[in-house]
Design brief:
The structure holds two protein chains of two kinds. Chain A is of the alpha/beta class. Chain A has two domains: 260 residues, Rossmann fold (3-Layer(aba) Sandwich), CATH 3.40.50; 37 residues, no CATH class. Chain A has 13 helices and ten strands. Chain A is globular and about 55 Å long. Chain B has a domain of 221 residues. Helices cover 72% and strands 2% of the residues of chain B. In chain B, strand 2 and strand 3 form a beta hairpin. The two termini of chain B are 23 Å apart. The chains are: A alpha/beta, B mainly alpha. At the A-B interface, helix 3, helix 4 and helix 5 of A face helix 7, helix 8, helix 9, helix 10 and helix 14 of B.
Amino acid sequence: MEKAENKGKSGVQRHLATRPSIDMSEHGYSLKLEDVSKSFAGLKAVKSVSLDVAQGERRAIIGPNGAGKTTLFNLIAGNLRLSTGKIFFQGKDITRLACHRRVRKGLARTFQITNLFAELTVIENMVLGVQALQRTKFVFYRHLSSRQDLYEKAVELLSNVGLEDYKNEVVKNLSYGIQRQIEILLALTGNPSLLLLDEPTAGLSPSETSAMVGLVKKMPPSITILIIEHDMDVAFELVDNVTVLHFGGVIMQGTVEEIKKSHSVQEIYLGAESLKKPRWLGKISEKKSAYKTTTNEVK
Amino acid sequence: MISRRVTILLGLIAGCIFLLVPWISEVIIGSSYIVDLMVMAMIYGIVALSLNLLLGYMEHASLGHAVYLGISAYTVAICYTKYGMGLLSSSIFGILVGIFAAAIFGLLALRARGVYFLMLTLCLAMMCWGLAYRWVSMTQGDNGISGIPRPEIGGWSLQDINVYYYLVLVVFALCFFCIYTIIRSPYGKTLLGIRESESRMGALGYNCWLHRYICFVLAGAFSAIAGVLFIFFNQFISPSSLEILPNFEVLLMVALGGPGTVVGPFIGSILIIFIKDFISIYTERWLLVLGVAYIVTTMYAPKGVVIYVPIFGGWLVGTGKNILFGRQEKLSGKG
């Protein structure tokens, strides 16, 4: 496994190096959210979130269940329309762009619940990913197998992470851990410059989790990664900065060290009490001592 | 799975049988009765094969697919009898109008999915039926339009049913080949992707709506081609061709034969056309049998009858799983 990972490092980077370079002089950020809100019939799932993610930054978005993390991802990826606010990607306003147009600009995502073409084989999944941004996808008068290059690129991506042995397996027959890896590989087929990872390690065993961490770490530094993660060890290992969401709003933003030290984050993230008391903000000092034991577990 | 060589052999045998149908019919029952039925089976076979693009590869069940057949057939009849256009030009015009109708209906129906898509397509089909039934000045209403002659092609009079049979066979073979090519093309794969997970296709950068729309219009186009064959075969068209029944029959052909298989829908259309004819000798309650057939199919053979016939295995059937890379061994050998 170790060997395969090392081999993969150069491979993924080689693959991603073909991405058109972005002029960074005009704008230092990859993604910028301005006052983004989303309501579902009265329920404010995301409340005026503003976010700046620099090019090449690794950012984690954490928060308890129902904090609006996945909704935020759906807004960024274009699966949902915002109620108010604006989203900029590489200096361009993408607020009103459809999902697939954002992908063409270099934005890719994975899904919290594995979302693959379950009845198709691994290689077929990958080929669908590879041809997504090419004109080939509209060709209906020739056999797909005449495009050997698509197939080879898909195999190359798989072999980068040592999964080429599974290429002829039907996805639904594979283990969950491998499905999660393919989930990420599929997002990489479009050479993205911004990758949204929605809980990549959810439900994985410890060894599968470390394989996943290795996969994400291997990605070239130029690629910006936004990651939702519940496992704090994983999140703190992968990212530089953390944004904490709670009840749809940004509570705190800072480096991993700052977040680790923050008591308010410990409170909302670990304390079940906070759910009973939505207006927890004023109460932190009283409760501080009660969370000390659980705090150690995080570190 | 049987080898490619065997399937090619089977295809050749089937081709020979199709070529010999007029002779077989003459020998067995002494008339061209079987030829008539086979012509109908092939005309509806084209419609079923094209509906299979929607139902089998994209899981969009349309209950208004035979309507494009009706629209193009009506257009040919009206153009010829009312406006005195030539048979060739009215045929081309008929196909174009059928495609145009599919393009308009697609805009409306593809806003929905699942059972709502089914209801919308049914609703649009019923509107066409209403138009044919009530717009008497144009369609002659309930009486239908008659008096469309079969044309002559290169000295061969299509009035001879055996000659017409071979024309339909050629058109059917061409349509079969086209649909087969579409299924195996890069574009055809995107339909499978949309069937499996539309949200993932969107996240990969596919404009799913456009792919669904193209598929809908393509399917409508094949149905419209079948409409031209239909009008010259029957030489008569009435609103009954636009009723819910033919639409439902086509859906049943696909469901019975095997949605998502290459030959299944055509097998289904042969079965339905022949069984329908056979039963109508004994009883008028054909609809009852149709309903029972549908229930039995969905309960005991939801993937269609062809997958129970091992001789149709392999690439000829090509269910979702093995359809992407028909020549996979060859590919992986190179790669």
